[in-house]
Amino acid sequence: MTEISVNATHEYEPTFGDYVALLKPRVMSLVVFTALVGILVAPSGLHPVEAFAAILFIALGAGASGALNMWYDADIDAVMRRTAKRPVPLGRVAPGEALAIGIALSGISVVMLGLATNLFAAGLLAFTIFFYAVIYTMWLKRWTPQNIVIGGAAGAFPPMIGWAAVTGDVSVASALMFALIFMWTPPHFWALALFMKSDYDDAGVPMLTVTHGRPSTRRHILAYTVLLAPVPVWLALTSVGGPVTLAVAVALNLWFLKGAVQIWRRDEVMAEADGYKVEKAFFRFSLYYLFAHFGALLIDQALGLAGWA
Questions:
Q1: CA nearest to 192, candidates 56, 287, 292
Q2: For residue 44, is it left (φ>0), alpha (ψ between -120 and 50) or beta?
Q3: E-strand spans in the chain?
Q4: Can you identify the CATH homologous superfamily of domain 14-170?
Q5: Over 50: is that where the pLDDT of 4 sits?
Q6: 39 φ, ψ to 5°?
Q7: DSSP 229
Q8: Quick one: pLDDT band at residue 81, thresholds 50, 70, 90?
Q9: Which of 31, 73, 153, 300 is the most exposed place for a label (fewest CB within 10 A)?
Q10: How far apart are CA 194 and CA 201, in angstroms?
Q11: Mean of all residue pLDDT scores within the chain
């Protein structure tokens, strides 16, 4: 991590909104939702108060990861258009303050989740924070073009943590919820990298588009989308799935595969000519992809259709 210059004066007082932005609320929303699904579809369930506490502390753990990420990545965030307005590179929150908040929230979230549920779930949360902040942010992100592939595990743990908060263990169903997010992450971020043309180059981040070129990235998107497609179908056939989950899995993954094939067939001349229309549509669809799959699990659970197979 290198020292950065900030745009704000020393007299600037951070607002509540600055601290909220430090915790990456958009990422947190996905974490909270998938963890909640993990809790609700797990056998036996939790008392509503315990479930609320579990979600709160998992969310705080996600926020801690976001704060630590923004502290360490402030130098590259400052030169990327997508991240330049984050509170640390703007000087709205001091790097040391972001670090302190991240460490404090990490400790609080892990300890309190252990007290509210069980030590296994707390251990999973601690490992997730460590994986995102240290293994991904401090090591993988700046070292290998497989950063998104391996680092995607951090974002895939929340439903497994939610499940573990209820059961104290993992299962085939929770592992498949993990696998769904893990396999979705590379095509989601590589599609973004295709039309955010200069950001990763400018920041020196070895994204696949930088190290292997965009034609290779297009092939990788297709390959990972093909590998992803069977995962939600398999999940639909487990004890937590049902006919709604299966229908959503088939429909959404046919569309996702179609988009990946379209991306694979295009070259940069074609993509630049239409403003990366196909790549942007694929990325936008991927934003709703996970919410739809996990929402379908909830619908099957609510209708009593889970475990139909």
A1: 287
A2: left
A3: none
A4: UbiA prenyltransferase (1.10.357.140)
A5: no
A6: -70, -45
A7: T
A8: confident
A9: 153
A10: 12
A11: 91
Provide φ and ψ at 197, rounded to 5°: -60, -45
Q: By the 8 A CB rule, do 122 and 111 touch? A: yes
Q: What are phi and psi of 42, to 5 degrees?
A: -70, 150
Q: Provide, rounded to the nearest whole percent, the portion of the chain with pLDDT above 90.
A: 73
Q: Considering all CA atoms of the chain, what is the largest pairwise distance in Å, rounded to the nearest integer?
A: 62
* CB contact at 8 A, 89 and 4: yes
Which burial class, exposed, middle or buried, applies to 288 when counting CB atoms under 10 A from its CB (0-12, 13-18, 19+)?
exposed
Tokens of 34: 């998938």
Q: How far apart are the C-alpha atoms of 138 and 147, rounded to whole Å?
A: 11
The structure tokens 């990420």 sit at 69
The CA distance from 155 to 27, in Å, is 9
E strand intervals along 25-71: none
**Per-residue exposure over 3-36, b if at least 16 CB sit within 10 Å of its own CB, e if not:** ebebeeeeeeebeeebbebbbbeebbebbbbbbb
Going 212 to 228 to 30 to 251, the CA torsion angle's sign is positive
Instruction: Estimate to the nearest angstrom the gap between the alpha carbon of 67 and the chain centroid.
Output: 15
Measured in whole angstroms, how far is the alpha carbon of residue 13 from the centre of its chain?
30
Instruction: Indicate the pTM of the whole model.
Output: 0.91
The token duo for 179 is: 């696998």
Higher pLDDT, 226 or 196: 226
DSSP 8-class letter at 142: G
**269-280 pLDDT tens trace:** 899 899 999 999
What residues contact 26, with CB distance under 8 A and at least 6 apart?
none
Strands (E), 113-258: none
Q: Which residue has the tokens 């400018």?
A: 202
Judge contact between 201 and 211, C-beta under 8 A: no
Using DSSP's 3-state secondary structure scheme, residue 274 falls into coil
For residue range 126-177, list pLDDT tens digits in order.
999 999 999 999 988 888 888 888 888 999 999 999 999 999 999 999 999 9
